[in-house]
Amino acid sequence: MLMDLISPLFPSAFVFIVCLGSISRSFTGVASGATRAALTQHFALQDNAADISAKEGSQETVAMMVGMALGMLVARITIGHPLAIWFSFLSLTMFHMYANYRAVRCLALNSLNPERSSILLHHFTETGQVLSPKQVSSLEHVLPIQLTPWHSKKANSLDTKVRLGTRISSFDEMEIKEHLLSVASYYTKAKYLLVEKKGIVNVIVHKDSNGADILKSFIHALVLANNAYKSKSLHSDSQTWMENQYEVFIQKVKSLGWKTERLLSSPIIWRANWIHQSATEKND
């Protein structure tokens, strides 16, 4: 809509601006469709996604009809008054964005993504208790973390120190061999490998790992990142925590309605394959 309004101001670039507006609407439609599908699955508590989708479509149709009628009324009132047109457009756009923000804030999603996992683990390590989806939703960032205040970034930023699905060839050959010889004994039964480098925990995922393995690897990486400046024997301490506390943590998370089948993260493109030749060695 913004492109349509400014296009008459630049006659020489009219076609370009209108086309740019159409492309922008297409991008918005794709993003809207993707988020709508995820939210429909969230609200389909009784596996009634089709029913939820139909009702949402009906509500959207009614809202569009009412909006169209009000839009025609506003257009008739503001015709011939450019200042009133721009004021109406900007004020309604800001209200629309604020309403969307508040609507997203009301959501209490029970799926685990990197940030929610970080918030849950941070609170668990501090208090021994697990937060509910509603409590976590009030702590989760809605806007990108780059746009949030500094103190808000600092509160729960462990997930920013973890890189999931790191390509093993991104490490120096001698460096990775030395690392494997020193810490491989901690991952003999795991389908992942953690490599801490310059404060960042890299997760190398095995090609046969499933959703539960990836979630476990990410939680393990968060524990390792949390202990990065507290302990000298990072892998030993984090492995001890995983053996003693991980199942307790997962059971408490499940008891509050969280879904622990998998971690909602970006697709893991790079996976590795290794064979346990001995108790202290892994080969890629």
UniProtKB/TrEMBL annotation:
The cellular location(s) given in this protein's UniProt record come to: Membrane
GO cellular component, as recorded: membrane
Where does the Root UVB sensitive protein C-terminal domain lie? 159-274
UniProt KW keywords:
Membrane, Transmembrane, Transmembrane helix
Instruction: Name the domain of life this protein comes from.
Output: Eukaryota
InterPro entries, per database record: RUS_fam (IPR006968), UVB_sens_C (IPR055412), UVB_sens_RUS_dom (IPR054549)
Q: Does the keyword Membrane apply?
A: yes
Instruction: Mention any Pfam family matching this sequence.
Output: UVB_sens_prot
Q: Which residues form the Protein root UVB sensitive/RUS domain?
A: 1-127
Residues passing through the membrane, by range:
84-101
Its family remark reads: Belongs to the RUS1 family.
> What's the protein here called?
Protein root UVB sensitive 3
